[in-house]
Design brief:
The chain is mainly α. The chain is built from 13 helices and two strands, in the order αααααββαααααααα. A two-stranded antiparallel ribbon has the order 1-2.
């Protein structure tokens, strides 16, 4: 018989988790402050938050210049916050992927989702596809490309009506290379050198030139995706242990995998659209978090 964890140990563990969350929030705020401070025009941390609060609460007045307001509020803050949301989104996708295939090396690139999103985004940049969506053409193209990659991997990986993790990984890697080749071909066939240069610059990944409206779609996608995943932590834990265990607990593993595929495609497509292809975040952050709080998704996802 397995002895339950003593109450005092369980309480200590909960307290450590709460302290860790507080420490991480403090580190996050310090990181945001430091990132906004640093630049060709250095600005003190106090001035950074005075300017930020004055934009939220107009009754706050100060002796800062209009140039400082533009630098802090219109240039640096949107870029730093987008970096936070992009990192959070890729980390959540990485955690989900690793539970999905029970492989610690899984990340958004392993199923070709990032590569598929790149193809959709490049089509929008070079040839004006999805232009009827206006400013969201790039995001829609990336999401559609990610969804296409998901569909291809999903149908090729099915065998006898079931999805097998090893088969998913192998086919995902193959599809990823295929979409990367398509992206390179499209970039080479672009009509002008300027367009090709723009695509290559975008593929390198970056957050320069971010404006406040650019945050709307990533934030909404992250809220929807994370809300769904937080409701599915029990199923993710069961899937991480094993497929048979998950089925014993009454989880329809095939249906659940489809849902996870769709959510990760949505998040990856939106993130790639605003930031370009950024690697290793979805691979490394989940491992760092598990080192701190263990493998329980009830704790991993919030961190």
């Amino acid at each position: 018989m397995i002895n339950p964890i003593p109450k005092h140990l369980r309480k200590d563990k909960q307290q450590r988790y709460k302290l860790l969350m507080v420490a991480l929030v403090v580190i996050l705020l310090l990181s945001i402050t430091l990132a906004v401070m640093i630049g060709p025009v250095p600005i003190s941390p106090l001035r950074v938050w005075q300017i930020a609060l004055s934009q939220v609460f107009p009754n706050i007045k100060g002796d800062w210049t209009q140039a400082q307001v533009q630098i802090v509020w219109l240039i640096r803050f949107p870029r730093v916050l987008l970096a936070f949301f992009v990192g959070a989104g890729l980390s959540v996708v990485g955690v989900t992927m690793q539970a999905l295939v029970r492989n610690p090396l899984a990340d958004p690139f392993i199923f070709g989702i990032s590569s598929g999103a790149s193809v959709g985004a490049v089509l929008a940049i070079l040839f004006g596809f999805f232009s009827f969506f206006g400013v969201y053409a790039l995001s829609f193209g990336a999401f559609l490309g990610a969804l296409l990659a998901f569909v291809v991997v999903f149908f090729l990986a099915r065998r006898q009506g079931r999805l097998f993790p090893t088969r998913l990984i192998l086919i995902g890697v193959a599809v990823s290379y295929m979409f990367e080749a398509i992206t390179s071909f499209l970039a080479l066939k672009a009509g002008s050198g300027e367009a090709t240069q723009g695509v290559l610059f975008w593929l390198l990944g970056g957050l320069s030139g971010t404006k406040w409206p650019d945050l709307i779609l990533p934030v909404l996608a992250l809220l929807v995706g994370c809300s769904y995943l937080l409701l599915q932590t029990r199923s993710l834990n069961a899937l991480l242990i094993g497929e048979e265990t998950a089925r014993t607990l009454g989880i329809d593993t095939d249906s659940f995998r489809k849902q996870l595929f769709f959510v990760t495609s949505l998040l990856t497509g939106v993130i790639v659209a605003v930031s370009g292809v950024i690697g290793f975040v979805g691979l490394m952050i989940p491992h760092s978090v598990r080192f701190l709080v263990g493998s329980d998704h009830n704790r991993v996802l919030p961190v």
